[in-house]
Specification:
about 260 residues, alpha/beta, Rossmann fold, 2 domains, 5-stranded parallel β-sheet, 4-stranded parallel β-sheet, 11 helices, globular, glutamate racemase activity
């Protein structure tokens, strides 16, 4: 049994949506969250830049002596997870991917829109995922450049982001989609707006809970689960020098 912290990183604030699911599942663990807000968003960067930033985030967490690392970013997972696992084979590294499987299995022959960053949708990993499930459902990628920026600025509702999301979703909604997959960890923070635009009959999926379950499974196999019955701690760090960023981390986590 191991009481060291679990490290979680994201391009910015989005990964807190994953952290919340993880803490809910394993409240006795200790956590260190690192948001790379000074370099957000990752979704419009080159593969080389995303890999470099992911390595920097990983090194920050390893310097804190974490026992496992969660890549709470779909884009960073797609680009860097395989490389990071090769570089650090002795530590469990868990990623996240768009929750396409549960969306496809939810309803027979449904239509599924996948909202994600341009980088995530352009990578081979997503194309393989889409190809695998395209026989089961009609899948419509929805690139969302700029959406993560709203979350980083603390804008989760209001006329501006509503109109922005309406523009992104209009082509998919015209196809009468049955489900929307939130393929970026920033997007759950604007899920209420997305649901309002899409309507109550459209089901929304994200991959946070599946990532939490996989982390728990990996920790159990490696005998790294903490034996404590007391509630663990959560520490927040950011590459941003803006003091409001850490304050926003706490607000999002506690919301």
């Amino acid at each position: 049994m191991d009481t060291r912290s679990i490290g979680v990183f994201d391009s910015g604030l989005g990964g807190i949506s994953v952290l919340r699911d993880i803490v809910e599942l394993m409240p006795c663990e200790n956590y260190i969250y690192f948001g790379d807000s000074a370099h957000a968003p990752y979704g419009t960067k080159t593969r080389e830049a995303i890999l470099e930033r992911s390595e920097q985030c990983t090194n920050f967490l390893l310097a804190k002596d974490v026992k496992a690392i969660v890549i709470a970013c779909n884009t960073a997972t797609s680009v860097a997870a395989s490389t990071l696992r090769q570089q650090y084979p002795s530590i469990p590294i868990i990623g996240i991917e768009p929750a396409l499987k549960p969306a496809v299995l939810w309803k027979e022959h449904d239509k599924v829109a996948v909202m994600a960053t341009p980088a995530t949708l352009a990578l081979p990993k997503f194309h393989e995922l889409m190809k695998h499930y395209s026989k089961e459902s009609d899948i419509y990628p929805v690139p969302c450049p700029g959406l993560a920026d709203y979350v980083e600025k603390g804008i989760f509702d209001g006329e501006e982001i509503t109109e922005f999301l309406k523009g992104l979703l209009a082509p998919s909604l015209e196809k009468h989609v049955d489900a929307i997959v939130l393929g970026c960890t920033h997007y759950p923070f604007v899920e209420k707006v997305i649901q309002r635009i899409a309507g109550p009959d459209v089901k929304i999926f994200n991959g946070a809970h599946g990532t939490a379950l996989e982390l728990q499974r990996r920790l159990r196999i490696a005998e790294l689960l903490t034996p404590s019955i007391e509630k663990g701690t959560v520490e927040f760090y950011s590459s941003s020098t803006n003091p409001e960023t850490i304050k926003l981390c706490h607000q999002l986590f506690e919301a």
